[in-house]
Amino acid sequence: MPPYFLDEERGQGKKGGILMRFDQFLKEVCPPLDLEWRKYRRRDAKHRVEKRMEELGLPDYATYLERIRCDTEEAASMAERMRVTVSRFFREWERWETLRQAALPRILLEKGPGEPLRIWSAGCCGGEEPYTLAILWLEHFCERGLARPVEILGTDIDAASLERARLAIYGKGSVREIPRPLLQKYFRKEDRLWHLDERVKRMVRFAKQDLMHSAPPQRVDLVCCRYLVFTYYRETLRFEAAMRLRQALRPGGLLMIARKEELGSAAELFEPLPEADGVFRKREFDFP
Ligand SMILES: C[S@@+](CC[C@H](N)C(=O)[O-])C[C@H]1O[C@@H](n2cnc3c(N)ncnc32)[C@H](O)[C@@H]1O
Questions:
Q1: With a 6 A CB cut-off, is 247 part of the ligand 1 pocket?
Q2: Which of 228, 231, 259 for mutating ligand 1's site (highest number of atoms within 8 Å of CB)?
Q3: CB of 24 closer than 6 A to ligand 1?
Q4: In terms of domains, do 229 and 259 share one?
Q5: Which of 77, 103, 249, 251 would staple 282 via disulfide (CB 3.0–4.6 Å)?
Q6: How many domains, the chain?
Q7: Cβ contacts of residue 103 below 8 Å, gap of 6+?
Q8: What digits encode the pLDDT tens for the residues 70-126?
Q9: 244 lines ligand 1 (CB under 6 A)
Q10: For residues 90 and 99, what is the distance between their CA atoms, to the nearest angstrom?
Q11: Is 44 in the pocket of ligand 1 (CB under 6 A)?
């Protein structure tokens, strides 16, 4: 292992005579990619960056930074390397409660009889989020006589995450927030792994899509976009991405974000739903 892995305190690499620490590296590398450097878990990001430096045989962060600055392909691959692919079922329990009690009933009121509900999980990772929606639907709407067709789409840019989503077999990290009765009802445990029930699996369709470049789905009632655009993207990119999310929504459609997230530069595109914390309604005006 090269020496630069060892001396975290002193940092590594010369830049203007100062040794460059990993934080400094992130601070410089993220803004040109329109990414928010403060939001990354240092340990994971550092591990990935150093692995790449080792592959390229580069001695320190400063040299890698120079490489990224003059090599557009390496810059693009850096953006890829910064992707975080961690998720959990029922992540932030109170959000799902809000969705169940306030947001979904509101959507149902606005839909015509028999009209399918359309839900999009943008940046769905290993499927935990769209499957949570499916379980919520089965538990609270289907089984209580409010059944109607629901179409749930999970999209992600990362092929490996989508493969995990289709397989739907999870370790304990992914299932730790699921209430026990739901875990027992919708999963089967085998060799310390949790296998999701076929009934839930069948409710979700997955597709590989780059949020920033693929055509978004249309006439969606609810978009869940959490721990992607409103965590890692800075101003311009965040606004562009939010425009795409907005485009997917039908008039009056809803967007749900995560507990610690704010719309920031995208606030003008949505209005808060007063009764549902973290849920926003598509703002209606003529936008190009
Ligand atoms: C931190 S995970 C969040 C998963 C889930 N939404 C949650 O909150 O638990 C972010 C996901 O966004 C995906 N992602 C990153 N950039 C993307 C893009 N441009 N288009 C689509 N998905 C993207 C990553 O591959 C990753 O699976």
A1: no
A2: 228
A3: no
A4: yes
A5: 249
A6: 2
A7: 222, 254, 256, 273, 276, 279
A8: 999 999 999 888 899 999 999 999 999 999 999 999 999 898 878 899 999 999 999
A9: no
A10: 11
A11: no
Whole-angstrom Cα distance, residue 133 to residue 95?
11
Report the separation in Å between the CA atom of 113 and the middle of ligand 1, taken as the mean of its atom positions.
Answer: 33
Residue 203, domain member (yes or no): yes
Domain that residue 135 falls in: 93-282
Cα 126 to middle of ligand 1, angstroms: 9
Confirm whether 165 is domain-assigned: yes
Kindly state whether residue 49 falls inside one of the protein's structural domains: yes
Find the 228 Cα to ligand 1 centroid distance in Å: 5
* 266 lies in some domain: yes
Atom of ligand 1 nearest to the CA of 161: 27
Q: Whose CA is nearest to atom 3 of ligand 1?
A: 227
pLDDT tens, residue by residue, 208-242: 999 999 999 999 999 999 999 999 999 999 999 99
Q: Where are the beta strands (DSSP E) in the chain?
A: 12-15, 18-20, 117-122, 150-156, 169-170, 187-190, 193-196, 204-208, 220-224, 249-256, 270-272, 279-282
- CATH code for position 107: 3.40.50.150
Is the pLDDT at 2 greater than 90, yes or no?
A: no
Task: Tell me the pLDDT band of 288, cut-offs 50, 70 and 90.
Answer: low
